[in-house]
Amino acid sequence: MDELIPDGITRLLLVEGNDDEIFFRNFVDHLVASSDTRLLVSEFAIIQYGGRSQLTLRLRDLKKADNFEHITHIGIARDSDFNTDALRSVQDRIRTINREGPPIIDIPDHPIVLTIGDPKVSVLIVPSADREGMLEDLVMDSLQVDPIANCVHKFFDCLEEKQVTIVPEKRSKAQIRVFLIGKNVGLDTDVSGITERLFLSNAYETQVWQQRNLWESPKLADAKAFLTQLLKP
Amino acid sequence: MYKSFRVKNFRCFKDLQINDLSRVNLIAGKNNTGKTALMEAMHVLAGTYSGQVLLRNPGLRRALLNPENESEPRNQLTWSTIFKGLQTGLSIELAATEKIPNRTVDTSQSRIELSIQSVSVSDATDDESRYKSFGYQYDALPDDVDLLKLCSSLDGHPTYLALIHSGIVYPRLKPSRFRPSQLLHARTGASARDIERRFNRIQKTKKIDMLVGALELIEPRIKDVRINPDGWRSHLMTDIGLENMIAMSESGEGMNRLSDIVLAMHEAKGGIIFIDEIENGIHHSVQCKVWKAIGQVARELDIQVFATTHSLEMIRAAYEAFSEDDELEEFRYHRLSRSRKTGELRATTYNELDMEAVAAFDFDHEVR
Question: Residue B125 domain-assigned?
Fold first, then answer.
């Protein structure tokens, strides 16, 4: 079994789940391929914390890890979700952990502003700090470069005209699924019948993610700045 | 009950502090991170009423009487193996903070210091001439033998220990504070003599049911345990509903291991038990039950338990056992590791909140 923080790692990105990990891993690959400056990817690791309610537990877990003393940068990515103050929620969870004793983790005042402590901490709220939603919203924003995205929007506009209600919490997830169907992803069959592979993580199977301009979308500027903070020497 | 323990310059430790000790303490860590040595150090402190504890401990006995350090002549025994980096110029310190129940001041310190005495045997013994009337006569020793000077906070006078091939020469002093402690080695089971003595005591105190109850976790058919005094050595017999009782040794390793643990715990009533590699012989399906039994016996007999393990299953089982019984505050998990920064060993303690955090992710990473 692997160590929570492998030897040699100094930069950590904490993400909610598997879809988030795959998204950020792809993003980092793009940054490495496109950046002129050296990025410390060999010292970088992504760790899932399994949803906002588990962030406290994962931080507590991390503070006990053998190599935590070598961590210089921590990034925390979190969905803004609905009817919550996501940044404040992250701050409260770090505060709870700090009350339990050293080592103390810096509490960021603003998103995407790296603190000056040791380790330095930064928070990314997706799709953005001033907008409710989740990672799928950010991904749909960035997919605007693809013509299929236009079809998806027309489909959902049509549903709205027909007064079909899609709850906000499900909307972007549904849009991603429709987008993937438009890309012929998720229609494979195996012995058990149709394999359902219409989750966000399957989106990276489409060629659209090979397009450099997708990752350069202004909608992903905050995420790019956040990752660059974590990765630059 | 020890609340914290500090060891300096002993075996592999330069200076290690372990805090937040509880009733049941599970110690894990990679190979060569000092798990067994930490228990040896605690065992020595717990048994300072007698220098003999250094040889009752199998690991230390082997190290002291069968030195493998090629720099020393084969026939020359030396205390160096118990000193960090074989540096006999250092001073070993073992210290513990203890919780004393029903006292206004609820903690006390016990501490011993071990160092090589540079003066000759005759000087040391003249200085403490009263020791001459106990046991071995120091003046019968060669004058150039190294003396280990043991200063204990429990006794104002230093004790001088000499190492000879047949064992340790030490004065027989009455203990300042008797603390029963038992150490179960990882691989060698208890001797027939120990088993007999322990069983007789458990029988005398009418606690055989406790032993049977624990063994029932592994062998549900068990009804009784007796000792067979026949033959050239005594051994335990179990009644599993057959026509005759059968020898415990005919049962699996798990039965014998658990029997050793419970008998040793009974012997350590009010004191400490050290169990090296507790998982040995115990199938994963009963590990949780074994922890519950250990927790229950420890509470009943007021024993503090220290156990080492290499097994993630055993750590998980301990968490499950103590959380199911709502007794997590009675359990602490301590991980020993080597700091990459300093190269020295250190201890990280997981309290109930920390264990809940690890369990929340289903022990998804290496915590051993």
Answer: yes
Does residue A99 carry a pLDDT above 90? yes
pLDDT of residue B131: 45
pLDDT averaged over chain B?
83
Sort out which chain B residues have CB atoms less than 8 A from A101's CB and list them: none
Handedness of CA A211, A216, A218, A221 (dihedral sign): positive
The per-residue pLDDT for range A151-193, each reduced to its tens digit, is: 999 999 999 999 998 888 889 989 988 888 888 776 555 555 5
pTM comes to 0.84
Same domain flag for B127 and B201: no
The answer on B139 and B221 residing in a single domain is no
Spatial distance between the Cα atoms of B138 and B119, rounded to a whole number of angstroms: 13
CATH fold of A11-133+219-231, please? Rossmann fold (3.40.50)
Phi, psi of A19 (to 5 degrees): -60, -40
**Does the pLDDT of residue B135 top 50, yes or no?**
no
pLDDT at A194: 47
With CB atoms and an 8 Å threshold, state whether B357 touches A61. Answer: yes
Interface A-B: count of C-beta contacts within 8 A: 47
Which among B92, B103, B97, B28 has a CA at the least distance from the CA of B60?
A: B92
B337 contacts in A (CB within 8 Å)? 66
> Inter-chain contact B339–A69, Cβ cutoff 8 Å?
yes
Domain with CATH 3.40.50 in chain A: 11-133+219-231
Residues of A in contact with B348 (CB under 8 A): 64, 66
Question: In terms of domains, do B79 and B134 share one?
Answer: yes
User: Of B149, B169, B189, which marks where a domain is finished?
Assistant: B169
The mean pLDDT of chain A is 88
The answer to which of A29-43, B64-78, B235-249 has the lowest mean pLDDT is B64-78
Structural domain span for residue B284: 181-360
Each residue's pLDDT tens digit, A40-66: 999 999 999 998 889 999 999 999 998
B203 and B109 in a common domain: no
Residue B161 lies in a domain: yes
Sequence letter at residue B128: E
Q: Is A6 on the interface with B (CB under 8 A)?
A: no
Beta strands in B209-297 (DSSP E): 224-228, 235-239, 246-247, 272-275
Check if the interface score ipTM surpasses 0.85: no
| B312–A contact, CB cutoff 8 A | yes
